[in-house]
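Deviation from plan, reported transparently: zinc ion complex.
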Amino acid sequence: MINSHCHLNDAQFDNDREQVINNFLRAGGDAAICVAWDIESSKKAQQIAETHNEIYYSIGVHPDNVEDFNEKELENLIISSLNNKEKSHQNVIAKRSYHKNAVAISTKNGFNSEQSAEISKLVAIGEIGLDYFHNKENKAEQKRVFIKQIELANKYQLPIIIHCREAYGDTLEILKQFAPFKFGAVMHCYSGSLEYANELIKLGIKISFTGTVTYKNAVNVKEVAKTIPLNSFFLETDCPYLAPVPHRGKRNEPAYVKYVAECIAALRNMSVTDLISATDQNAIKFFNLK
Ligand SMILES: [Zn+2]
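Because the crystal trials were delayed, the predicted structure below was used instead.
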């Protein structure tokens, strides 16, 4: 079971991070993507991923933190993450191709620490996007930072993880400029309409669902999760936020992705095993985990 978006790098996990990761593994977790929101959390995500076989990570600046964005600093972090020794762009790309092969071998029978020590576990740029709920005053700056990070993702052949809150029109406009996303794009914590989801899917963009799908009043999200093609989405928790029922209101953790799976499987009238197997395949392909 893959959790495509958690914030294990959040301070809320500082006291019991090992326990929380163990809970995930015991619940049937195979891999989780630790997602960043600024420079500090990018470095922390890297450190967590480099010390845990099952954890991969992203680097990026969330629209709430645009003042933290420095293109050169972020690019340097990406380069050093992809390859500590070889600095040139070409070498980074070559190393990344090697990474794919190495992971394919190591995932066959669990993860091989010897191989994973040599590969980069940076698998995406994110979370990036637009958030007009928290700040409507700096729209132009948010767009600039979003676009710069999409360009960086393309340059280093990485998929993007998109955050969008109350900025659907502007987000879609930017995404249309860059589609099709050769290296992948996912709209995380989906909370829009079915119509909007279909627009994204037409552009080749994936959808990921959090625990919000389990909430009683989440009529639209339930409809989307029930309707869109099985190959177009995957699962996440966005923990420590948005804990699914039956833990709603408490701290969320990666293991709770199983409640997201159970809810969507029931909506789609299929077994939880089949749902997880399909969404795992989608996530593995998307993040190049195999
Ligand atoms: Zn998030």
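Residues 84-117 have pLDDT under 50 and may be disordered. We consider this an acceptable substitute for the interim report.
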